[in-house]
Design a protein that fits this description.
The complex is a heterodimer of chains A (242) and B (106). Chain A is an all-alpha fold and 242 residues long. Helix content of chain A is 74%, strand content 0%. Classes of the chains: A mainly alpha (242), B mainly alpha (106).
Chain lengths: 242, 106
């Protein structure tokens, strides 16, 4: 039983503590969605339905924005799901980390895959490669469940009292900072630095790609740059380089 | 325009099924089968391949539409402190506080 497993709870505590910094932004970000969705004509139940069923901030905001613009149904679905395609990369990247878990655990984890839950689990693995499967599952759920709860709470507040919350609290800048803070501890090797650089440069160059696919194309390029520079560095070092 | 209730729920259902399919795709279907080694190693770069690409356009754009040097400096300090301390928390604090302080003085 996972819930009685000591290692699972040790991991969960680790994940919970590591994800505390995100607590600053989840509620305001959720509030923003609740507000936009209400303005697009959704009732409270529908706003909550969105957050519980879809659980993806950027995709949800894309969807309600397009709904308000009366975009065709196909465009709404295709564009919002394209925004979510990066979750497919997280899904693949989680295979080496928690792929050995039971099917129901993987199915449950799949629901909760988002930027923070994947990235914190990967970061903890990077810092401590000897974590057991149960600990890694603990880290994942220890991030995912509390952070998503704040997202549900935020969207509820946005839908119910949204208009009374000042839109500009200077918190918008906190969102990119949390993402940068997630990758910063990884930027200690040349392949990681090159991959991050590739990601930024090509996402900016591909900004006009349809369905915001530029991020994904740049992401795949960055994976390749990371991998090949790692292989190249290994060869270089084994030949007695620096 | 106000959409009908049914239409909104259909959109929610479509997005929810699609999102779950994307998320379940690899983790659910591959499971404990071994990925090819090069693929596994490449996937180790997923965080640095995606998150900076999401974050930097947000750093470079602001509500006024002009580039704010303060944001760039704060972003740089976030990365520097995070890489140096290997701590997500210190990285975030560096970013938030440097932004707040610079905005207050400038």
């Amino acid at each position: 039983m996972l819930v009685r497993n000591k290692l699972f709870w040790q991991g969960a505590r680790r994940g919970f503590i590591s994800s505390l910094p995100f607590y600053i932004v989840m509620v305001p970000f959720g509030t923003l969605f609740g507000l936009l969705a209400t303005e697009a004509g959704l009732n409270v139940l529908q706003v909550m339905g969105f957050s519980f069923a879809v659980l993806a901030g950027a995709a949800q905001i894309t969807a309600v924005t397009l709904m308000e613009e009366n975009a065709p149904t196909f465009i709404i679905l295709a564009t919002s799901l394209a925004v979510n395609l990066r979750m497919g990369m997280y899904s693949a990247a989680l295979v080496p980390l928690i792929g050995k878990a039971k099917l129901w655990q993987r199915a449950l984890a799949s629901y909760w895959i988002f930027d923070q839950s994947y990235a914190v689990t990967a970061l903890e693995h990077n810092k401590n490669p000897n974590l057991s499967l149960d600990e890694r599952l603990g880290v994942f759920f220890g991030v995912a469940i509390p952070v998503s709860s704040l997202w549900y709470l935020g969207t509820y507040l946005g839908a119910v009292v949204g208009n009374q919350i000042p839109a500009e609290l200077g918190l918008e800048f906190a969102v990119p900072v949390t993402f940068l803070a997630l990758v910063a501890p990884l930027l200690r090797s040349i392949p990681h630095l090159l991959a991050a650089f590739t990601s930024v440069v090509f996402t900016l160059l591909f900004a006009d790609f349809p369905f915001s696919s530029g991020l994904l194309v740049a992401g795949v390029m960055a994976l390749a740059v990371g991998y090949f520079s790692e292989v190249w560095l290994e060869k270089f070092e084994s030949k007695g380089g620096v | 325009m106000i959409h009908s209730d049914l239409y909104v729920w259909m959109i929610i259902a479509g997005l929810s099924l699609g999102s779950f399919a994307i998320r379940f795709s690899f983790l659910g279907l591959i499971g404990d089968r071994q990925l090819p080694k090069p693929v596994e190693r490449a996937l180790g770069y997923t965080s640095v391949a995606i998150l900076p690409g999401i974050a930097m356009p947000m750093v470079l754009s602001s509500s006024t539409g002009e580039l704010e040097p303060v944001r760039l400096i704060a972003a740089f300090l976030t990365l520097l402190v995070g890489a140096w301390t290997r701590s997500l928390l210190y990285a975030l604090l560096a970013g938030i506080f440097s932004y707040a302080i610079l905005m207050a003085i400038l």
